[in-house]
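Need tokens for this chain, all 659 residues.
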Amino acid sequence: MAIAQMKKFMIASHRSEASAVLEALQRAGIVQILDAERAMVSKQWPELEVKSARPKYLEDIVSRLDKSITFLESHAVEESPKSLFKPLIPVNEASYTEIIDGTEGTNLLEDAEASSNKIEFLLTEKENICGHLEMLLPWAGLPTPVEEFEDLESVCCLIGLLPNQSLEETKGILEEFSAIVEVVGERNGLNSCLVLCMNDKVSDVHKSLRSGDFESVSFEGLSGTVDELIADSRVELGSIEEKLGEAKDTAVKIASGLLKLQMLFDHNSNLLEREEAGASCPATENTVLFEGWVRKNDYKRLEKLVGAYGCSSLNEMEIGEDEVAPVEIDNGRVMRPFETITRLYGMPNPKDVDPTMFLAPFFAIFFGLCLTDAGYGLLLIALLWWALKKFQGDKGVLWMFMGCSIVTVFAGALTGGWFGDSITSLVGEGTWLDNIRVKMMLFDPMSDPMPFFIISLCLGYIQIIFGISIAFFNNLKHKNYMTAFFENLTWLIFLNALILIGLGKGGMVPEIIGKIAGWAAISQAVLIFLFTERNSGLAGRLGGGFYALFSSVFYFGDLLSYVRLMALGMVTAGLGMAVNLLVDLMMDVPYVGYLLAAIMFVVGHTVNLLLSVLSSFVHSLRLQFVEFFPKFLVGGGTDFVPLKKSFQYVIIEASEDSK
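Here are the structure tokens for all 659 residues:
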């Protein structure tokens, strides 16, 4: 339940077995390999060579597989075994090995690429023919063969399209040049026109047509009448459509082997990652050097793994002064689901503490208080239990919400929330169900919100003090004694003294304790003022001390932020009551009242549940990130990213022979 300790290692492997060692490291998934830029050995011996050539062949294979999979997925008729909860397809280990070692997958890839290229070619041809038809259709019915328009000697025929709005005006202008405009047809607001003029007037006619937005059309290279050309194009289009249908049928047949390509993709993606890691490592003529990080608990396993290779050796390295180890957090089964919150914030610094164990109970309690409805909590538990049975992969987030939902049930029972006030408003007060509800209640926030207010502030105060305490003990652990005493302990005493002064003024503690707390607060204020900026000059020290004392206001601002627990809890209850009121009103509708009421109950409380869960998660998250973590967490750690196999499409199940 802490930040995992890291060890630096160096594996020297002969080139003859370097690839096998790297494959074993990837299969184990316990080490992070450093490239030449980050490896200390490269800085100590810059003469070491680095294999700079990229594994281009593998990159091409992965790219080809990705394109072919996308293509076949669009043509697959069989329903994919993948689902939202099970994104990976289970495959037998023997089948997986057969595909990656055999030629069937490669042949299937070539067939898929050929089919894709053929369909793409036919679609391009179809698009060209459709474009050609679109150009010809406005001229349908023109009796003159199109090639004859180019054989005129003393007369020029200009062919093109004129918009409706400029047709008459253009005709009038062209009459001045003795030009004749013959309208063949009209389509989409454009008139198909033949403009005849003498050769010596062509330039003037061209200029007039341009002013009328004339769009030229060319029949160059075509022969025959337009109707004949349209008929030929339609025959050709029908032939293309037929070939396209056959090509798509072929693609559907090839798509039945989609899973094989997906297995091949996952295999080659892992192989590419491994080759890229190996290519970036420093090396000599005969030896490849794998420098990296491993968790201390996995070092023995690494020794055993490397020891299986006769031409490879493993040595532990000293961590350099400027080196910062990557960070991995390690928690038990109960706390591990809450690592999601830590990872959302960012990894802690190697000298920090892992906040997961400390945030988990607070986050669950805050979530429960924001939601504050036992009915909603039970509904969430049922939904999450179903999802846990169905979901494939890491279920940490689901288990985290399961813990929060259990707390929600208790928080709702203690405040009397069961789908809002449905027991009292829909079942009735004084019933046996209402009596059970009342016996479990601690207080009713809707009639007496003060206890909720006090609980929220108390929880906030406890978490803030707890955060400062974590910082104090962590600084002691790392022998930062001045920081621990003058930046943590002073604030612990000062803030608690202020609370005791307030309680003394209110008569809640003996007067003598209030007076002692007053002297304690003054003494700590002096220490905060004088020693917060210990390494600055006199002006910086006094200014920093004054600002540090002023920042006590920020602590009270942080404390008031926890009132949102009460606010959101009461909003959830209030919306639930509004839904129940509408349900009660709908029951009075003749004939269909109970049906409408049931629909309103389900829809209304579902919407309230979704909004409340979102608000509870976001605001509980905010209290950790803004009010709690800054008290003790520096952050800025780098993730420990081990070289390991990852799968996008399949999950390999061990065959019976290997069990």
